[in-house]
Amino acid sequence: PRHAHLRFLTRESPQRALCFVDPRRFGSWRLGDAWQPERGPCVVSEYQAFRENVLKNLDDRAFDKPICEVLLNQKYFNGIGNYLRAEILFRVKIPPFEKARTVLEALKEQQQERRKKDPSLTLSKKVKLRQENPDLLELCHTVPMEVITAEKQLLDPEHSDNYAAFKSWLRCYLVPGMSCLRDRSGRTIWFQGEPGPMAPKGQRPRKTGKKSPQLKAEPEAPSPEVTPRASKQRRRAAGKPPKSEEKEEEEEEEADRPGKGRARGRRKVAAAPAVPEVPPSVRRSRRTSARRGQGAAPAV
Fold first, then answer.
1. Exposure of 215 by Cβ count < 10 A (0-12 exposed, 13-18 middle, 19+ buried)?
2. 3-state class of 106 per DSSP?
3. How far apart are CA 52 and CA 35, in angstroms?
4. What distance in Å separates the CA atoms of residue 230 and residue 227, rounded to the nearest whole number?
5. Is 34 buried (19+), middle (13-18) or exposed (0-12) by CB count in 10 A?
6. Domains along the chain?
7. What is residue 98's three-state secondary structure?
8. Side-chain half-sphere of 58: how many Cα atoms within 13 Å?
9. What residues have CB less than 8 Å from 230, skipping those under 6 apart?
10. Counting Cβ atoms within 10 Å, is residue 77 exposed (0-12), middle (13-18) or buried (19+)?
11. Which among 22, 61, 134, 289 is most buried, taking Cβ atoms within 10 Å?
12. Which segments show compositional bias classed as Low complexity (predicted)?
């Protein structure tokens, strides 16, 4: 690419390149063996550290936000993106705009109750319970793992049906019948059911899916409730519509009034003459006879 300032070339033939494209040169490259300081443990490869990092920092102000927005915070959910958060919340049946701290504190209490009830559970039994009833943090690990383990079917660009397989794997994200809203960061969240108490004000959830065919109204039976603006637009679309009787009367009254600055559209409308038109020859004869007999002739 044109603005590729860093290139990693493969040794295969034909050769391929992994490029860092940065047209405005705002980025930087640092070689290291760990995540950046602003990123937490990986949800896939460092699950236990990821879980502990979330549960021990619930006092952070970041958890005052809705759970759907917190799931994109890479300081605590390193690796979760837009489609993953929708799938996770859908499976655990949590409204996306529920307060994050409320959701995670309840999860912490449930974990403590499990340990109190049966502290002697073996590892295999614990794994089985997690698989049967996974909580939100466990789904943050298992849902991405589903995509990774099915990589040949979902992410391999050499397979022509990879997107079809990925689309069939989705249960919520971009699925017809689901609702969607924009969060406060401008990202769209997909969900089912109610959005939650912290949903943005002024927005209504939009449902996706095929639009049902609309029946066209017959021209003989127009709707009785027609706004003036809609009526005007219909007349414009029809070409040169006939003017209503009230409009014609208003224009005739306006033409009869003295004054300047008449609208161009009203010049064609004129009041009927008060007296019949008199030919010029008759006018001249009348004036001549009036001068002879009675003096000045009255104006016609």
1. exposed
2. helix
3. 17
4. 5
5. exposed
6. 39-198 (1.10.8.50)
7. coil
8. 16
9. none
10. buried
11. 134
12. 291-300
Placement of tokens 């980025």 in the chain: 27
pTM (predicted TM-score): 0.60
Residues 6+ apart with CB under 8 A from 176: 208, 209, 210
Lowest mean per-residue pLDDT among 8-12, 117-121, 221-225, 270-274:
221-225
The tokens for 257 are 């009034």
Residue whose tokens read 């519509």:
241
Mean pLDDT within 130-147: 89
Burial of 71 (0-12, 13-18, 19+ CB in 10 A): buried
SS3 label, residue 116: helix
